[in-house]
Structure formats: structure tokens, C-alpha cells
């Protein structure tokens, strides 16, 4: 039986992982990094609050501009684009991306935090202007752009008619964590086409812009 080079490499890596399993996670992590594999635990978002069953009437949802807090001085356009793209890929509702300039014109401010007291007119005016059924607010809670890259996100989906929380999540993704590294690189192997397909997925852990695609996917993938 003839084996392809890819199959032989997979068998070699599996053998190495099995042989070093008694040594510990650090050895497996180094094998993954060397051979661009993702053996071992995968990080799962756990800090989630959600209602039972996604409301059928949430057919159109507004994504408000990212609240950057203490990182407001940093240009994060690519991160915001990734949030919109990954949320839209969930195909749970029609997504309306509200630009900061439009928010300023409507409310006199460009961004709202998911944990602040929102103005009573926010939901009603967004409904009047965009005919939305829900509103998604996202906060950047932590941002470290240098290796190891780390990004924290907090997000809330509100019912546009009642203001009730439909779904919320709060998580920090640290690329130095082997489980996060595995999950991120698995995402780029299976679910995201890259601009440089011949590059190892390890490079995604060194780029805040690319890593944020995984962060957005992992966060929004918990919406049920």
C-alpha cells in the first residue's frame, strides 16, 4: 500500500506525540508547532449566558461599533471587520453594521459599552432607522499585540424590542495557552482561507489581525 507524503507525516507526528505523551503538554505543544499539527486539547468558550432557544423574531440585528475603552488610541479597523465577517457567517440573522459616524449623528457618541447604562432611545431609534430586531454590542477588554498575542472580548446580544439579554459571552484568548493555540490553528486549517495558503498556521498566532478572526469566530460560534 502506497502512502502519500502527507499521510506519512501525519503518522510520524502521531507517533511522536504518543511517544512523548508521558513527558507533558509542553513537548506536545512543541511538536504541534514544528509540524503544524493541532494534537491536544482545544479551547472552548465557557463564560456564556444565553436564553433557551434562539428567538425566532430576531431576524435583523445591528452590530454597533466596537467599544475600545483604554485601547481607543489604537487603530483596530481590521479587528472590527473580522467581527462583522464572523458574526455574519453564523447566518442567524440579517446583519446591519452601524458605522461610528452614523452612531455619532444619531446619538452624539460613536460607541457604547455593553456594561454601561444605555440611553432609553437607543433601541427604539435603531429600530426606526434600521428596522432591527436586536442589537449586538462588543467590548475590547484586553489587547496585547506582541507575542504572545492576547485578545479579550465581551459581547451582548439584546432583544431590540424588550432590551433583554438574549446571549452574552466574556472571554480572553491567550495565544501562549496551548489549548487556545490548537483551537486557533485548527480554525485556520479548516474554516478560514488565508492570504498565504503555504504559510503554517503558526503565523496566525503572531498577528493580532489574523488571531482576531479566530477570536470572533470562537465567540460568536457559541450563539445558539
Question: Explain this structure to me?
Answer:
By secondary structure, the chain is α/β, with parallel strands linked by helices. The protein contains 7 helices and 6 strands, in the order ααββαβααβββαα. The radius of gyration is 20 Å and the shape is globular. It has a 6-stranded mixed sheet with strand order 1-6-5-4-2-3, sandwiched between helices. The chain has 2 domains: 1-40; 47-220, Rossmann fold, CATH 3.40.50.10610. Mean pLDDT is 86; it is low at 16-23.
Compact description:
The protein has 224 residues and is α/β, with parallel strands linked by helices. The chain contains seven helices and six strands; from the N terminus they run ααββαβααβββαα. It is 37% helix and 19% strand.
Amino acid at each position: 500500500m502506497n502512502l502519500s507524503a502527507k499521510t506519512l507525516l501525519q503518522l510520524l507526528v502521531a507517533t511522536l506525540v504518543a511517544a512523548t505523551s508521558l513527558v507533558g503538554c509542553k513537548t506536545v505543544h512543541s511538536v504541534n508547532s514544528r509540524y503544524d499539527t493541532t494534537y491536544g486539547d482545544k479551547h472552548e468558550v465557557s463564560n456564556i449566558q444565553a436564553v433557551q432557544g434562539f428567538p425566532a423574531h430576531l431576524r435583523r440585528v445591528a452590530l454597533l461599533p466596537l467599544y475600545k475603552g483604554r485601547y481607543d488610541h489604537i487603530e483596530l479597523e481590521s479587528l472590527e471587520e473580522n467581527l462583522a465577517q464572523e458574526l455574519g457567517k453564523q447566518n442567524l440573522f440579517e446583519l446591519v453594521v452601524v458605522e461610528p459616524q452614523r452612531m455619532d449623528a444619531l446619538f452624539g457618541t460613536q460607541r457604547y459599552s455593553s456594561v454601561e447604562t444605555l440611553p432609553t432611545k437607543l433601541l427604539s431609534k435603531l429600530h426606526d432607522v434600521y428596522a432591527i430586531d436586536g442589537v449586538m454590542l462588543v467590548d475590547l477588554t484586553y489587547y496585547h499585540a506582541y507575542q504572545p498575542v492576547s485578545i479579550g472580548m465581551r459581547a451582548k446580544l439584546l432583544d431590540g424590542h424588550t432590551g433583554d439579554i438574549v446571549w452574552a459571552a466574556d472571554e480572553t484568548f491567550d495565544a501562549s495557552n496551548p489549548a487556545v493555540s490548537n483551537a486557533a490553528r485548527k480554525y485556520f486549517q479548516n474554516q478560514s482561507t488565508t492570504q498565504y495558503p503555504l504559510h503554517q498556521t503558526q503565523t496566525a498566532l503572531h498577528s493580532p489581525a489574523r488571531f482576531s478572526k479566530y477570536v470572533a469566530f470562537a465567540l460568536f460560534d457559541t450563539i445558539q
